[in-house]
Automatic annotation (TrEMBL):
Protein name: MALR1 protein
Pfam family, one: MAM
Residues in MAM domain copies: 9-138
InterPro entries: ConA-like_dom_sf, MAM_dom, MAM_domain-containing
One GO CC term on file: membrane
Organism, as annotated: Rissa tridactyla (Black-legged kittiwake)
Length: 138
């Protein structure tokens, strides 16, 4: 859910990528699949639906990294906060999921959140709040 002020855009990957992720601007390695795809866990989305779609890293990408980049968001203020809530699954094999913030005046991406795989093999949920006085991407 990409929330800017009172509006909230849900992104469920059922038909495609959502508006926040530029039209199928996927780096190699990301695939859109569901639990029935025969590619191993997870076998359903976070709500237990095995036919619902989510994004997954292909097995060939286990040893390297792949990025998802949002469209440009406008600056935040008291009326326009940005909260992004997402569900994620990291198997114990996979490494680290990171969320980065890139402001338009900066060349570098600042890491604002991360989590690593553990032995639980389950969906987790997280919400991050972003404050930026200039346009930015996540």
């Amino acid at each position: 859910c990409f929330n800017s002020g009172s509006s909230c855009e849900k992104c469920d990957f059922e038909t495609d990528l959502c508006k926040a992720l530029p039209e199928l601007n996927l780096q190699p390695g990301w695939i859109r699949r569901n639990g029935q795809s025969g590619m191993g866990p997870p076998y359903s989305d976070h709500s237990g639906n095995d036919s619902a779609y989510f994004l997954s890293l292909s097995s060939e990408m286990r040893s390297s990294s792949a990025t998802l980049r949002t469209n440009v968001f406008l600056p935040t203020d008291e009326e326009h906060i940005c909260q992004i809530t997402f569900h994620y699954w990291i198997s114990q094999m996979s490494g680290t999921l990171m969320v980065g913030l890139q402001k338009h005046s900066e060349d570098t991406i600042t890491n604002i959140w991360q989590d690593s795989g553990d032995l639980q093999n389950r969906w987790k949920s997280n919400t991050i709040t972003i404050n930026s006085t200039e346009k930015y991407e996540v």
